[in-house]
Fold this protein.
Amino acid sequence: MEATLKEIARLIGGTLEGNPDTVVRNITGIDKAGEGDLTFVANPKYAKYIEGTGASGIICSPDISVPGKNLLKVDNPYLAYAKIMNYIFPAQGQSCQIDERAFVGKNVRLGQMVTLYPFAYIGDGCVIDDKVTIYPHCFIGCNVSIGEQTLIYPNVTVREGCRIGRRVIIQAGSVIGSDGFGFAKDGPKYYKIPQIGNVQIDDDVEIGAGNTIDRAALGTTWIQRGVKTDNQVHIAHNVIVGEDTVLVAQVGISGSTKIGNRVTLAGQVGTVGHITIGDDVIVGAKGGISADIPPGQIVSGAPHMPHRTWLKAVQSFQKLPDLRRAVHQLEKKVDELAQKTTKE
């Protein structure tokens, strides 16, 4: 990359304070940046490093002012960084070819500029739209539909009848449409309940590596537009995940849970089944969701409680050994007073 700060400002919609003709060729962290480098400050605690950096340009928030530095001011520096990274490192072009070692079943409809790498398996009756890329050792079951510009990395399984939208990214090793965990008790044994539904993933979703999204017992497990999941997330059968929701690493969602729009479940959050989590809810790491949560709540802990209450509870928990010792000492004094009163 080589661009002037004027061009960068136009790209990110920022206001430039400094020399518009300064040329930058790379983007790097503020502690290592030198002449010709562009850097950014997304977290206010790093603003103190701006004065000492050798970077030729610094992306920062509008409230920062450092004389003598070239500042590109934007409301969201992290978003500006993301835009520049996509500008510097655009997505790699694909071969747009069907490798002879890929398997394509009967009655498959392939769009234009589809890329199938070696050992990709496409089952009968699939519909693969334009500019889809499927990497090696992926299994696409019968009657699956995949929307245009979707990217499926190696070793992904998409089971029969599932529907994948447009511009979806599925990272390596994920399984879409595995059987839901459904068994009926038969005395001391368990009888498997057939899982005959499917999974629907809407447009602009990104599924992390090693995810498992179970097909519905009946109907559809539904991942709505714009959802982003981290690695090792499990979504059980008949779950609905609302638009622009974020599920961080190792989240586990039990069956028939309904999650609203713009929800954030932090790392290792778990839910019971058949509950509803409202829009704009945030759940702190390792939270255990045991009941419905109304929209807009911030909760933590297991079982979940308001975040501020949880903070107070954690602080109290740390004091329990001292409180236990104090109570024991008070009990001894009470016993001594009781014995003295009895003797009198």
Q: What stands out?
A: The CA atoms of residues 299 and 305 lie 5 Å apart. Helices lie at 5-12, 77-88, 307-343. The mean pLDDT is 94.
